[in-house]
Amino acid sequence: MSVTTRRDFLKCASLAAAASFAGLHGRSAHAAEFTLKYANNLPATHPMNIRAKEAAARIASESKGRVDFQVYSNNQLGSDTDMLSQVRSGAIDYFTLSPLILGTLVPAAQITGVGFAFKDYDQVWAALDGALGARVRQEIAKTSVFAFDKIWDNGYRQTTTSTKPIHLPGDLKGIKLRVPMSPIWTSMFQALGASPASINFSEVYSSLQTRVVEGQENPLATITAAKLYEVQKYCSMTNHMWDGFWFLANKQSFARLPKDLQTIVQNAVNDAAMQERTDVAKLNASLMPELKAKGLQFNDVDINAFRSQLTSTGFYADWHKKFGDDAWTALEKYTGKLA
Ligand code: X2X
């Protein structure tokens, strides 16, 4: 190729550099127009990240390489507290977070985590994909982020300890139990008689390993993915709350995308959420034998005894007052009378 001017030379040099980079890293020589960072707190093996990576590939294909949707699993970009402030500022573009931890920014979002509220998944999805979910997303949208329509699943939470099985609320008395950073989580386990400690998920394994706390609570799929069975001995099937993850988007970042790319991203992510829900429900229903084989000792509990304790200690009455009659009525439309 004959070089006639300095400009031509520089153009040839940059094309040659891009071609060699592409050869080395297997990527197209053309960098994406939009690089989007999605972060979460779950291990790479959890269905959330499996499905998120599939969505990333779908977004790259449907946008013809214009969007590079990057998945940062397992607290790579910081703790939940860090990632929440990053998605609010736009340092990251997307972040999946429990409605209850989001409660530190949007108190009304905690309503979907009221103890023993949803009896089964039919009630959960009717509420979260219905008026209650819409109501919560409306509150979230008053901040610098908004939530995509379809919430991702975490599942029904079970209580594990390294010291003793939990059969009745009285067994929780004085138990140093890790809970996520959320007012309603702390309130509920105080009402049940435990000594809750608010710790980000990024510190849970080490806190259990060093006995800073003796127990925690999570769905079986999350317990398995985070290998918490290595530092816990008992798993009591309390099913004390359903929990999920709102897919939060920074508003300014999303607004910078042309409309066609916004649609591609939202459709791929919402479809991934629906697939992840199926994966997680299947896993939570099937992991007990595997966890038993890893040494976890299981027991069932009398759920009514726990529910009665939340009634008698005024937990339901207190949170009914905090959320207000309107929101509480919107919840009980799906759960039935709670107290
Ligand atoms: O922090 C937890 O326990 C986890 C992983 O379940 C949530 O993100 C709420």
TrEMBL record:
Domain of life: Bacteria
UniProt xrefs under InterPro entries: DctP_fam, TAT_signal, TAT_signal_bac_arc, TRAP_DctP, TRAP_DctP_sf
Keyword tags: Signal, Transport
Presence of keyword Transport: yes
CDD domains: PBP2_TRAP_Siap_TeaA_like
One Pfam family in the UniProt entry: DctP
Protein name: TRAP transporter substrate-binding protein
NCBIfam families cross-referenced by the UniProt entry: dctP, TAT_signal_seq, TRAP_S1
Signal peptide boundaries: 1-31
